[in-house]
Design a protein that fits this description.
Layout: E1 5-11, H1 20-29, E2 32-38, H2 40-43, H3 48-55, E3 78-84, H4 86-94, H5 100-111, E4 115-119, H6 123-126, H7 129-140, E5 144-145, H8 160-172
Parallel strand pairs: 1-2, 1-3, 3-4, 4-5
Length: 173
Amino acid sequence: MTSEKVLYVFACGAPAASDLVALVESAQAEDWHVRVIATPMGAKFLDAERLVALTGGPVRTDFRRPDETSNGLPPADAVVAAPVTFNSVNKWALGITDTVAVGMLCELVGMGVPIVAVPQVKAELASHVAFGRNLDVLRSMGVRVLFDPAAPPHARMPDWEKVLAELNGLLDG
């Protein structure tokens, strides 16, 4: 177990997940002990080998088996869910826990763990009525959502430094 603060980073299947190593390294530079959890599609975008080397733990993508007594993760002090896809935003808001990543996000909201969510979606999906409503649902549950539908599509996903700054601001109150 570590005395450092623990950050869970959740990644879904969107382009920014391919650069998740940079987020992990930036968080570690701020003394976070980082663990990575991914949706099955998100795992396809990740450099899992590099993330395992950086974090000292596996990239979690599956539910634990019945014979496993623990998921091997230290308790989270905070969460960054980035990038979060259209599909995962909608499932998370509705409580559909068919992946370990979305299931854990639902649990962490219920536990009151501070969460910053950063969707990365196509403009066509961002304009879908369910997406906007479900972002509002997440906000109503206390999730800090970084998404500006009025921004040009290329500018909707903030850089990792802004994501961590937002997390720090959330934690500072």
